[in-house]
Structures are given as C-alpha cells and as structure tokens.
Fold:
Amino acid sequence: MSEKPSGPKDTPGSPSHSHYWTLQCQVESGWEELWEWYCFEHGALGTEQRSAPEGFQSVAYFPEDPSISLKNLHQQFNASIAGNLEAVRIHALNFREEEDWQSNWKPFFKPVQIGNTLEVLPPWLSSTESSRKNRILIDPGQGFGTGHHTSTALALELLEQCLESCPVKPHWMLDFGSGSGILSIGACLMGCEKCIALELEGDALKDVISNSELNQLQHRIMPLRADKNCFQKTFPLVISNMLLSELKQSSTDLASSVAEEGRLLLSGILENQVSELERIFTVLGFVPSNKITRDSWSALELSR
Structure:
C-alpha cells in the first residue's frame, strides 16, 4: 500500500478537487469517538461509520493533498492516544477520482447552526440566506475545526455564553492551538476586538490566514507560531480545543496565559475526562465555573 503523489493545492475557498483519499479502518469498541476526532484534527473532510461482521469500521475522507502520511495515521493514534497498538487497524487506503468534488461533498458540509447566533458554512454556500447573526466561513480540509465535530461546536457554544456574560468584551483573546482558526473567527464576530491564533504546528498557520481572509478578519486575527516567548503575556480570555493528552501537556502554558480574574475555556474532552482536567487546573489556581456536555463530549470553563 502506497500513497500517490498529490497534485497542486486548490485556491482557498474553491473546492475544485479532482481526487480524494478514503482511509478505511477497523476500530476497537471504545475508541470510535476519539479516532473520529483524530481524523478531523488531521484534516479529514468527513467520516462515515459502518457496521461489519468483525465490528465497527470507520471510513475517513481526506483531500488529495493531505498534510501528513495517511498510511501511518492509525499507528500515531495508537501510540500517542490509545496506548494500544490494536485500537485502530488499517484496512485500505485508496486514492479516488471525483469529477465534481463540490457536489460530492455537499452532504458533509451543510451549514451548522451553533448556540444562539452562530452558523458555520463553507465558502461556496456564503450566499445562502440565514437568520443567524454571526456567520463563519471555513474552507473544509484546512486544519481541524469545521464546526461539524461536537468538540468544536461545544467550544463555540461555550465561547458564545462566555462573551454574552461579559459586561465588557475582552480586547484581546488567545486561541491556543487554533487549527482552522474557527474559534478566533467566532470570537471576533461576537465582539472580541483582536485574537492571537497560536499554533503549535507552524505549517497550520496558513489555514488560519486563509480562513481569516475568507471572513475579512485578517487585520484582527494575528497568527503566531508557539515558542517560549508566547507565554510571557496574559489574556483575559483563553480558549483551547485539544485532546486531553494535549491539554495536560500544555496545562502550565495555558494557565500562565490567563490574566488575573480571567477565564479559560477548554474543549476536546470526553465527559468522563472532565474531573481529571478539573483537578489539574484546580491545582494551578482555577475554579470550574461552567460546563456544556453533549454526545459524550464536554467543554469546560474555568475562572481564576
């Protein structure tokens, strides 16, 4: 099994792909949700769950120019997340031709309504009428965060609740591990003046830049690659949508980035992981103040 060399990348906002990848895997019971999350985090355009005689199967769809090696993705998940070399087993990796990519992927990228005011949609549906006040345009396949995964939706919903409760909207906010930039964009649309989109992976910054431009927010969202100097400034509001293992690894940096009387919003955690995360940040001086849970996923707000 080998990966076919990809062609040139498409222009942001123009989903005119001629090929795509399908990654079919066998997933042990209990790891389905995290595997789906992991695929989205690494650029999946959509996922499909299938029942089979041998158990649960997952099919993940990726753009023709993936940012990582798809044939090794399951091994990385097993080693870094599951700690179980048999949690995900690859069945097939196929490179497929698609004459009309946009039509093929419309079922995966219908507009997603989140909270009271937010709607996330791809750029080719930007002219669609909507009653929602804040519309976020995201080019699918660019970094994790299209609003379709529960963890991203919960992060945006918790962010909306937090900003609605602020008598004065924060001038600056930090989006820690920004992915597609969706949380930074949402924050600016809901009243935050400026946002630093901090990426732990330098290559992902291009996704934040292009999606900021799609939303005409390039002058209010500042993409930044993480280094030790990033954590010398504090913010009244910090948000992060990452897996529990990544939140634990970054807990000290996250805590040091929150100003006195500031708030920290965390998503990407399963409901049964909330208590562990609360214990970690309680030791770092935080108090849990709000939580949203849906479909076994949770988003947590903590205050200093």
